[in-house]
Specification:
It is a single chain. The chain is mainly alpha-helical. It folds into 2 domains: about 5-205, Cation efflux protein transmembrane domain (Alpha-lytic protease prodomain-like), CATH 1.20.1510; about 210-284, Alpha-Beta Plaits. The protein has helices spanning about 5-30, 35-60, 75-105, 115-140, 145-165, 175-205, 210-220, 255-275; strands spanning about 230-235, 240-250, 275-284. It has a 3-stranded mixed beta sheet, with helices on one face. Strand 2 (about 240-250), helix 8 and strand 3 form a beta-alpha-beta unit. Helix 2 (about 35-60) runs antiparallel to helix 5, helix 4 (about 115-140) runs antiparallel to helix 5 and helix 5 packs antiparallel against helix 6 (about 175-205). It is elongated. The two termini are about 40 Å apart. The mean pLDDT is about 80.
């Protein structure tokens, strides 16, 4: 699937579904006066906000390379992921603070049947959205779409916690406050996971062992000699990937022959893996 199109499709579906769920949840939270349900509702709305960011990032990231940005604009996706993590962190802090205030005031919340129905529907819908985002993100290799999937997943989990709390609300007066804290901690965790992945890609990452094995095996199909391929480095610009590594060739080869071998390997990598490779030649 096209990288940019994936962001548009997933983001648009997410915005529509999350806005509908937010309206339902906030309505029920107003009726019951529940902080946990209100937190869950705003968590859902934050999904819509993050999805808007995903769509914008997909648009910015699709711009072609220019003089100022010779490797393209794909890293807008990481910037979008960091922004999503920031939104989650702010929301988490707000509801953590409110839940503590409610607990110290010993406020009790009365839930109803409608709260159970809306929460149960939210769990199913949000998990389906999460699976959809993960699928699209993997297929297109779009990290901001995957981040949006984590946001959906965390919302589904927070709704599971809320539903459990609703079922035990009569036995424990403090359940709503505790649920608010639990949801806030889930949001903090999701923010950390998203932030860590985005920062790792921006700082630079080591190619996976699987990718190194695939590249090595592909080269061996074309060259019988052991080229002693090593020292892999990858610079991931999302829409453009730069790969560098070293090979060892026989000492009696001319500079022209060594250059020809390196160029052929670079072409293989571009055709098979869609990466621009730069190869450093060493004497065996």
């Amino acid at each position: 699937m096209d990288h940019t199109k994936a962001g548009y499709i997933e983001g648009t579906v997410s915005i529509i579904v999350n806005t509908v769920l937010f309206v339902l949840k906030i309505w029920v939270s107003i009726i019951t006066g529940s902080i946990a349900l209100a937190a869950d509702a705003w968590h859902t709305l934050s999904d819509s906000l993050s999805s808007i960011v995903v769509v914008i990032a997909a648009k910015l990231g699709s711009r072609k390379a220019d003089k100022e940005h010779p490797f393209g604009h794909g890293r807008w996706e990481q910037i979008a992921s960091i922004f999503i993590a920031f939104i989650l962190g702010l929301i988490a802090f707000g509801f953590f603070q409110t839940s503590i205030i409610q607990f110290t005031g010993k406020e009790k919340v009365e839930y109803g049947t409608m709260a159970i129905i809306v929460t149960a529907v939210s769990i199913v819908v949000k998990e389906l959205l999460a699976q959809y985002a993960f699928y699209i993100g993997r297929k297109a290799g779009n990290s901001s779409v995957k981040a949006d999937g984590w946001h959906h997943r965390s919302d589904a989990l927070s709704s599971v916690v809320v539903l459990a709390g609703i079922l035990f609300a009569k036995q424990f007066w403090w359940i709503d406050s505790v649920l608010g804290v639990a949801i806030a901690l889930m949001l903090f965790y999701a923010a950390i996971v998203i932030l860590r992945e985005a920062i790792t890609k921006i700082l630079g990452e080591q190619p996976s062992l699987k990718l190194i094995d695939e590249i090595t095996n592909e080269i061996k199909k074309n060259y019988n000699d052991d080229l002693n391929i090593h020292h892999f480095h990858m610079h991931n610009y999302i829409s453009h990937k730069e790969l560098t590594f070293h090979i060892r060739l026989k000492k009696d080869l001319t500079i022209g022959e060594g250059h020809e071998i390196a160029t052929e390997i670079e072409k293989i990598i571009m055709n098979k893996f869609d990466m621009t490779a730069t190869i450093h030649v060493e004497p065996l």
